[in-house]
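Complex record, two chains
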Amino acid sequence: MSRIKKLVIDGYRGIDHFEYEPNMINILVGRNNTGKSSILEATAITYTAPTGFLDKMRNNILEKIIERKGWENLEFFINLNKKDKELKMTAIKDGLEASVSAYYRKGIYEEIPKDAIDLISRYYSNLYREQKIFLRLTGRSLKSIDKSIEERIKEKISEALKVPLLFGQVTPGSNYFIALPNERKVLTTVLDPIDLIFISIEKFNIKNLYDMLLPTVRIHQTLDYIRNHIPYFNDLRSDGQKIWIYFENLPKPLPLSMIGDGMRETIRLLFVASLIPGGVLLLEEPENNLHPGLYDVVAERLVDIVRNDETQVFLSTHNLEFADKLLRYGGELVNVVRLYRVKDEFAYEVLRHDEALEELDELHIDLRGP
Amino acid sequence: MSRSYIFCEGKRDRRFLKRLIQEKKKGTTIHEIELGKLDDLLRKERFDGVALVECGGYEKLLKQAARRSRDLANQPRALPNADIFVVGDSDKVSKTKFMERLNMQIQKLRHSNPLLKVREEGNECVVLENQKEQGYTVRVFVLTVPNNLESQLADSIRRLYSSEVKDLTDDEVVRLYCDRKYRCDEERMIAEDVDVVGPLLNSDWAKRIVDLLG
């Protein structure tokens, strides 16, 4: 179990400063452009940073996030008010502090640390290694081959350093990373997946999720949960190629692709939620595509995994009904973080579950912020 | 008239304030809204007139008026500069209590730089200045009904029918009057009554609200 006890974000995208002691379920609410996604992204980046930004599905979280926003927009990952073009984020987990410092530099070679340049050099050396081996095997003059490859690597490094770069350092470990727009890659020294899943970065393939869950008892628990909560659902099986869904009263199973978006999304969410016991689950607007009748099913399951597996959940939502279900099922495990943007200023307030429920319940207040 | 928000405790206050504005500020558009629907109104770029919000008790009045004052002051798109009126019973609501709640709400909103500057002005006014939008201010007037509206109505009835109601409580007095004259329809009583409600429309505290509405 590696619960985030404190999160400090300084200068990531639109966030000037955010300091928060998370609960087990953290619901981010606010109007568009108030920073909900930025907080989820920053949490994902910081949590995965010490192990090379790899999540449980072996996605490079930082790479995926940059991909989503555009490699040409690296500059905007650092809050525009930060004159030093530097951001810092810290996540304090149980007994461990993980920090990420990142810088944006444009064509200032001297300001890029040697360790970061070494990463680029290593990357290109590896890239050419196979070619080198092939050339050696063909018996061509080793000296000239080596020379030409060394020159090409130097050329590539020099090209890479000409474009704007985002690079930084992660502690513990003092490992460097560098986002390389030329190659659309984030280079790091460590590569070790961690128990975090961020839904929205990628719509995970249900077959892959099923295959990952299959060796564990959690597949049975999850399918039992679906059976108990969706009466017409009988079973879900894989034939190795495809997933088939067995519905009551249907003579034949249906391929997964033939069932409705809402049902598919529910299965995806429930599978993902079961994959990382004790880890961190980040969900961006999980209610999208869900039928309101399924809010209960997903909300109750999320609270179950938080209670039983101590998985920590951060999610953003615009749906007050879904938030309401989570608040009711989760009780004191839930916090609501209400985000505001006042002109160019980022602001937020933290509501305990009882305060949030009071607003929703007694006052029918819209929690989304002004 | 710039847009105004009036927060009051209960139904009876809302109905009374509605009649007061209708009679003393003819032509003003009144938006009677439940607290839960206020967000929809706050999000509209433009609305003219007065939003009359019933909060359901003095605790909610203080909390929500403080919270909404903070949010409105942080929201320069609510231009023109807004005035907020917090109208409560003098036995439960005061400017000091409102200031306590306001400070609590302002502290709850965390941010890097000061967003709001708060200063008191006279006995009944609190001014919130937006630090990001120069010149944008929200004035909050905390106005009170002596004791409460029920006792004001009861006193007014007692003045007319002292012998019949002398041993009854304020609530019983108002109910009895409403039963006899308006068949228990309190909404109609407050909207139409001339003998009992009429004089209250000219009381000092009601005049103060009308004057401040501008």
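Note: Residues 58-73 of chain B form the longest helix (16 residues).
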